[in-house]
Amino acid sequence: AFSGNSNSESAVRHELQQGIVARFLRLIPVAWSEEGRIGLRIEVYGCSYWADVINFDGQGVISYRFKVKKMKIIKDVIALRFKTSESEGVILHGEGQQGDYITLELRKAKLLLQINLGSNQYGSILGHTSVTTGSLLDDNHWHSVVIERYRRNVNFTLDGHTQHFRTNGEFDHLDLDYE
């Protein structure tokens, strides 16, 4: 609760110590003024905020670098939301020097997840796994994606619908480069 002014002429300013990220603000007057009236006049000033919303024109790319040069991951969780009117495009891609990769892309307005936890040098252990989910994802609406992997077991969730699968091959680590 913030104390307000005591008359209809003065202004009271409050600066928050911590920033607030919100979509809506709801302000409720809780007491009458000494003049016997209740009222509210407010001005809200924001600060610069980097929203985690990224727009692409089909030509751009965003690169993320991990803190270490090489990652050997046994468990990972990737969660994101996307909205598009396009039916084709790469959403996420990471790869390593061992041939490991993870790719999430739109193909014919369906979501395609491709994972390879590695293949041996002779090709007898093929690790490529490909799973498709959803349809009509080029509807310009927000869609939520969560990829949870522990070793070779993967939960692939799109808009609350989960597919459980096990990756091909015998390897259970995802070896990725740091970018």
Q: Could you describe the 3D structure shown?
A:
This protein is an all-beta fold. The chain has no helices and ten strands. It has strands spanning about 70-75, 75-80, 90-95, 100-105, 110-115, 130-135, 145-150, 155-160, 160-165, 175. The strands form three sheets. The protein has a four-stranded antiparallel beta sheet, with no helix packed on it. A hairpin with a 2-residue loop joins strand 4 and strand 5 (about 110-115). The protein is elongated.
Terminus-to-terminus distance: 46 Å
Strand order of the largest sheet: 2-7-8-9
Radius of gyration (CA) equals 25 Å
What spatial form do the alpha-carbon principal axes imply? elongated
Alpha plus pi helix count: 0
**Strand element count:** 10
Strand content: 35-45%
Mean pLDDT: 82
Residue stretches low in confidence (pLDDT < 50, at least 5 long) are: none
Structural class: mainly beta
Biggest sheet features: 4 strands, antiparallel
The helicity comes to under 10%
- Along the chain, the helix and strand elements come as EEEEEEEEEE
What distinguishing features does this structure have?
single chain; mainly beta; four-stranded antiparallel beta sheet; 179 residues; 35% strand
